[in-house]
Amino acid sequence: MTSTSHRAAPRRSRRAGRPGADEPDLRQLLLDTAIAQFARVGIGATSLRAIATAADVTPAMLHYYFGDKARLTQALIDERLLPALAALRAQLELAGDDPAVLIEGFVRGLGEVVAQHPWLPPLWAREVLCEGGALREVMLQQRGPSIPQMLAQRFAKAQAEGRLNAALDPRLLVVSLVGLTLFPVASAPVWQQLFGAQDLGADALREHTFALLRGGAGVTIPGGAR
Amino acid sequence: MTSTSHRAAPRRSRRAGRPGADEPDLRQLLLDTAIAQFARVGIGATSLRAIATAADVTPAMLHYYFGDKARLTQALIDERLLPALAALRAQLELAGDDPAVLIEGFVRGLGEVVAQHPWLPPLWAREVLCEGGALREVMLQQRGPSIPQMLAQRFAKAQAEGRLNAALDPRLLVVSLVGLTLFPVASAPVWQQLFGAQDLGADALREHTFALLRGGAGVTIPGGAR
Lengths: 226, 226
What we know:
The structure is a homodimer. By secondary structure, chain A is mainly α. Chain A folds into 2 domains: 19-67, Arc Repressor Mutant, subunit A (Orthogonal Bundle); 80-215, Tetracycline Repressor, domain 2. Helices cover 66% and strands 0% of the residues of chain A. Chain A has 12 helices and no strands. Chain A has helices at residues 3-7, 26-41, 48-55, 59-66, 69-94, 99-116, 120-129, 136-140, 147-160, 170-186, 188-195, 202-215. In chain A, α7 (120-129) crosses α10. The termini of chain A are far apart. In chain A, 42% of the residues are buried. Chains A and B meet through α6, α7, α8, α9 and α10 of A and α6, α7, α8, α9 and α10 of B.
């Protein structure tokens, strides 16, 4: 279920009291609203009152479902963030050891994740990339091998077997893949305006990224340490 | 002059009143201190009082040099941010039309800029990349063609002349270059911890990036729209 389906729910007059049996999706709607605010202004800068106002419910209703902001953030992590990443991880685990299939799977899979969860890139930029971000520790402390670690290990193995450009660093290749997929989506509001390129969407980005990963820029960079 | 030289200045006891002739560098030191705080917690979250405390001066002294936070932010823009970018732009303008030379010049030049100004990547992540960032408009409204626009135009020309991988988008190549240079430095605290890779420094990143831009991942990605 994507967040879009919740957002499309009809708005009603300001809700008060406990939810009736006719509002099974209200908790999901409140979580969607909270995540949208978190992504826009940051978790630290978002008040429960602002979320309640945006969702057109009373603060008491928000409190009924989520308690305080710490528990609301935990719900975001447990019910939205980690499931989104787990789906991508499961997909990549099935992709096996072929680096070409892994790279294509990551680029395509991450594109699908951000298409389904448009809050993820801005939230990641603010709460993981920035120092003091509220989700950085979650990303670092995930149970089990994370997607980056799994990819780096498989890239290292593929490289040792001569199936990956020997001049790359397998760990930095993971950083490069994030820089070529998640970063461009998070920064799209900037570069779309800078280039007047509102026409450049997800498909163009994916094909460009595949082309770069296939053959580089198609130039002979002088390179070498200076 | 790099910010490092200011940071290395010996700390003295808490300063009060107007500066004497023996403190010509105090204004620069205060600006360095402010920028370090801005980079760490964000411009919005930094108080003048916190900067004064960190610089071991009175708030009155900070006010004497910079007035309010808006003028302090303007000093950061005019005296540090735009000069750092202008130096890179001047270097790239001299690089001419050869995309290989342009790409190498950008990767190498940006590496030098962030080595000289370690506050730049975290400040860029928080204040340009994140929505509502205090420096986003500055980046979008720079007078004259910006570095990204200049690069995109030259890449488009090179591609039209058959000197650049025809499957790339010239504008997205600029985004890719930022994602392969500035983004990895801004995210280094995350991936260095994730991979236990404190050994991977600026030289390793640059050589990896050159290798990727030269020949891609060295794999045949199935690719194509699905």
